[in-house]
Amino acid sequence: MLDDTDRRILRQLQADPGLSMADLAAASGIAPATCYKRVDRLQATGVIRATRAVVDWRALGYTVEVSLRITLDKAQDRAFEEFLAAARDIPEVLEIQSFLGRVDTRLTVIAHDMPHYQEIYRNRILRLPHISDIEALMHVATIKDHETLPL
Amino acid sequence: MIELDETDRAILRALVADATVKSSTLGRRLGLSQPATWRRIKRLEEAGAIRGRRLDLDLEKLGFGVMVFLGVKLATKGRVSLEDFERAVTAIPEVQTVQHVLGLYDYRLRVVARDLTDFERVLRRRIMTLPGVGNVEANVVLSEERRPGPLG
Asked: A13: which chain B residues are within 8 Å (Cβ-Cβ)?
């Protein structure tokens, strides 16, 4: 189980994943050797899965981001599986969630510009299997994007 | 905007999987020298292609069993400024991401909670009391996948 020291380390690492072990230990108020052992254990037990680079798609020329909320035709037996498998084949899909709620699944789709989005939407999205309804939310601005946990 | 070649895309893919990989290790995998790999990573960072680093934590192991996506419609767009809502919603620790969107809703939120009871507390005490908040729709996440995106 996690104790307060683990949570302190994780809070510091969430705020700055690039911290060196020495800085992390100092910020968490523990000895470097203890810190090293703790981080090692958090990784070994899978609490820390990875430190990932975050790609800025805008800098790569993808200026359009759309959230597509999709209702599936659940009368079809394998609607979820077949839809998800086909959605994975679209390179411009960044995220796929499935839900318990009013909509069944959601895709984050990026595109260079509106004509490019239109092309992806017509040629790839609308051809996905078992769709019964789609709602689109056009992304205007990101206000908060820390994905940190309240530890 | 930065133009990427096949090697840049492979480097980005590798750093998204593990940002702590050494440039020598990465170079060996891609058939590049350590300095050449380091220069390419530097160029990607300087061009802003890499926005930063993110710690990928196992939510369930940390006791966060519930993730909910909320669509929020503002009730009083004229009177309460968007800034008031944004400032207040950003301060809620359980709210991971806030996006301003156009469509059926005005904002899209990603919320984590320990369980459904905890989520109900966040929803009632923190979300429903936000300035200007109107209609709220909640969808509980059953599964989530992050895809590599167009880096293939």
From this structure: 55
Cβ contact A149–B101 (<8 Å):
no
The answer to whether A39 touches A54, Cβ cutoff 8 Å, is no
Gap between the Cα atoms of A112 and A104, Å rounded? 27
Inform me whether the C-beta atom of residue A147 falls under 8 Å from chain B C-beta atoms: yes
CA torsion sign for A102, A107, A112, A115 is negative
Architecture of domain A64-138: 2-Layer Sandwich (3.30)
- Structure confidence by residue, pLDDT tens digits, A108-139: 999 999 999 999 999 999 999 999 999 999 99
pLDDT of residue B78: 67
* Contacts A67 to B, Cβ<8 Å: 99, 101, 108
**Which strand (E) or helix (H) includes residue A24?**
helix A21-28
Q: pLDDT tens-digit profile of A27-47? A: 999 999 999 999 999 999 999
Q: A97, exposed or middle or buried, with CB in 10 Å at 0-12, 13-18, 19+? A: buried
User: Over the stretch B49-104, which tens digit does the pLDDT of each residue have?
Assistant: 999 999 999 999 999 999 999 999 998 766 567 889 999 999 999 999 999 999 99
What is the full DSSP assignment across A47-87?
SEEEEEEEE-TTTTT--EEEEEEEEE-TTSTTHHHHHHHHH
* Global ipTM: 0.91
**Looking at the domain A4-44, which fold is it?**
Arc Repressor Mutant, subunit A (1.10.10)
